[in-house]
Amino acid sequence: MEEEFAIVLKDLRKEFGSKVAVNNISFNIKKGKLFSLLGVNGAGKTTTIRMLMGLSKPTSGEAQVMGHSILTDLSAVKQISNFSPQETSVAPNLTVRENLEFFAKIYGADKEKANGLVKDMIEKFSLGEVENSKAKTLSGGWQRRLSIAMALISSPEVLFLDEPTLGLDVLARRELWHVIEKLKGSMTIVLTTHYMEEAEALSDEIAIMVGGEIKAMGTPDEIKQITGKENLEEAFISIAEGTEK
């Protein structure tokens, strides 16, 4: 794998019986960039991410994450990557601090290191005002912020974010955008979202999946230029419907 790339996919394919969910896709994601994988439901986004994380074995093809093969070096892939799922993965009856401490210990931190990690996450995500509140009492925006902080406890080199602002109101969504923007450059981030405004605001590069295949890839401006559309949502619809110029 070339040094500049964090993730490399080569003819990656996933079949479920007779259904082809991901159809021999190949692309590279540069280190330190935020890469958005866009597509309608069933396009193959989640299946692709599950393969990159080692949660689903490819039918054929290969991928490398920071130089480690998802086929032959999966333990290393799992050590250097983490995931914030669409369903907020917090323990509802634990406080914000307790959730962070619990995850720090899961990843092998002793008490002193765990305290340092928790303090860092609370500061980085501005969680101080709610650190002693039980997770179940938090708003959706705070819960999503906590979920991402928990995923970062392990100091991953690659972070997968699946629909991080799903269901949030406009203000909470914008606040979380600022949190994600601050992470850019310090790690490679792979984002899935149905919000085109979000993808345009945050992404360094975008790939659009249709029917398990990559139909377009480039910066948000390049995607718009490909289709001749003025905004990313119109460009996405054009590509998804196969009507791009």
Describe this structure as you would to a colleague:
It contains 9 helices and 10 strands. It is an alpha/beta fold and 245 residues long. It has a domain of 170 residues: P-loop containing nucleotide triphosphate hydrolases (Rossmann fold, 3-Layer(aba) Sandwich), CATH 3.40.50.300. Helix 3 crosses helix 4, helix 3 runs parallel beside helix 5 and helix 8 crosses helix 9. The protein is globular, with a radius of gyration of 18 Å. The model has no long low-confidence stretch (mean pLDDT 92).
Blueprint of the fold:
Elements: E1 5-16, E2 19-30, E3 34-38, H1 45-52, E4 60-65, E5 68-69, H2 74-80, E6 81-84, H3 96-106, H4 111-124, H5 140-152, E7 158-162, H6 170-183, E8 188-192, H7 196-202, E9 205-210, E10 213-218, H8 220-227, H9 232-240
Parallel strand pairs: 3-8, 3-9, 6-7, 7-8
Antiparallel strand pairs: 1-2, 1-4, 4-5, 9-10
Helix pairs in contact: 3-4, 3-5, 5-6, 8-9
Query: Looking at this structure, what is the CATH superfamily of the domain at 5-90 and 157-240?
Result: P-loop containing nucleotide triphosphate hydrolases
Radius of gyration of CA atoms, rounded to a whole number: 18 Å
**Helix and strand run:** EEEHEEHEHHHEHEHEEHH
Give the DSSP E fraction (strand runs of 2 or more residues): 25-35%
Secondary structure category? alpha/beta
| CATH fold field value of the domain at 5-90 and 157-240 | Rossmann fold
